[in-house]
Each structure stands twice: as structure tokens, then as C-alpha cells.
Amino acid sequence: MNSLTPKQYKIIDFHRETNDTVTLTADMKIKHEPGQFVEVSLPGIGEAPISICSFSKDYVKLNIRQVGNMTNALAGLKKGDKICIRGPYGTGYPMHYFKGDNLIIIGGGCGVAPLKGIIDYVEKFRKDYGDIILFLGYRSPDDILFQKELDEWKEKFDLTVTVDQNSESKFCYDANTEFVTEALKRAEFDNEKKVAFICGPPIMMKFVVGILKDKGFNDDQIYLSFERHMKCGVQKCGHCMINGIYVCKDGPVFRYDQVTELSEKW
What we know:
The chain is an alpha/beta fold and 266 residues long. The protein has helices at 69-75, 112-124, 147-156, 180-186, 202-214, 247-250, 260-263, and strands at residues 7-18, 21-26, 37-42, 46-51, 60-65, 82-89, 102-108, 132-138, 158-163, 176-177, 194-199, 222-225, 241-242, 245-246, 253-255. The chain has two domains: 7-88, Elongation Factor Tu (Ef-tu), domain 3; 95-263, 3-Layer(aba) Sandwich (Rossmann fold). The strands form three sheets. It has a seven-stranded mixed β-sheet, with helices on both faces. Strands 4-3-6-1-2-5 form a six-stranded antiparallel β-sheet, with helices on one face. The N and C termini lie far apart (38 Å).
């Protein structure tokens, strides 16, 4: 099949994560790397790039944040409905390079979704990696994604969850009230046999990179996932181009030493 041709898939599971976020599971059987994305469409409504937040050959999970007509329409679907998907596209995290390393996963807000693919991957190949340290930051308890999975991750990994502000909430997850960067700054670890993965708002990623470098991390030990409007997904439309780099094709995952100059312009 031509990679530009969408194919129809059935929604086999639907879960509302927060007031404005849902996770859809589609019966799409594909091989992909953690960090890649697909283009999701509904005939007559539109198309949107969505990160894959799972790692399986039997299905894909897509975390949808409601920010416009297309994503609102996707959030209004239910189990058994059909959606159109093409892909996967982009460059993911080269997990085979990190065998034997300790992994530090740092996510902010919706940026946790692409990183969940790494977590799912590590769960399948746990013996290939050392310590797994998670720092996940959200705006408030009501914005915490993957609440069902957090309890499992807490048992398996070294997990820290933070919220920028804490107020009366329907969710009762135990989280520190502080910026995730503060929790990371306090953490005691060096760069020995470690690699860090970061995804979140640009300002958050900028501060995280600075903290990691203060802890001795080299540029080639840090991986970033950029977010841009990847309209075509195949380096044709130019919507996601930044200084000659196509996020959809060259990324969305980049090693920091490959985009140092680019990231300095955040």
C-alpha cells in the first residue's frame, strides 16, 4: 500500500484520560519504533498527526487532546467506530542502541504520550536495560494522563509525578506540587551509562537539557521529541520545517547534538 493512502481501522477501545484528552486503541497491525507518529483522518472533517503512545504489533494507541474540530470529532467516537490512518512516519527512538543503559524518561503534559511508547517497549524487553527512572510533570491533578498505568509503573520503575498546581480534584493521585524540573534538579544521579529522553513544552525541554548538562550529560546522551504541525508527514508540504530540518522526516525524535543550534532558538 502507498504510504500516503489512509486505511480504515476499527476502534477496539476508548478511554477518557482527562476532561480534554482521550486515548483510542485501533486494530492497526504495524511495525514501528517508539516515538513515531501516524496521520489520522475522518472523511469530511480532516486529518491530524498523532503520536503513537503504545508499542505492539497488534494495535496502536493514540492519545488525543481536544484542541480543534478534528480532535474534538475523534474524541466523540466510541468503541466499534472506524477511523482512517496512514503511516507510521518519522524517526523514532533507536532503542537497540541503548541496551545495557539506564534510561531517564522526562515528560511534561501531553509530551508524556510519545514517551509512553518507550515505557511499553521497555516493559516488553526489560532485561535489555538497567534502571528506568521516570519524571512526569502535569499542570494539575486533573491533567494527569495514563492514571491506570501509573500504579503499574510505580511498582516497576523509579517514578516521580509532579503537578504545577494542586487544587480540589476528582483525581487523587499522589503527586508532588512543584515543577518537574525542580524534582529533576534534586535527583541524585550522574551520566554514567545513562541516556535521557525528553518530550514536553519547549520551555520545559530547554530547562531539562540545562539540568542534565549540569549533571554531566553529554549532548549525545540526550534525545528530544519536537512537536510541529506535520501536515503531510512525508517532507512535502513544508509546514513542519525549521531552519531546513523537516520534523516529520528528520524527526520528530532528535539526538541533542544534532539540533543544538535549533534548540537554542526556543
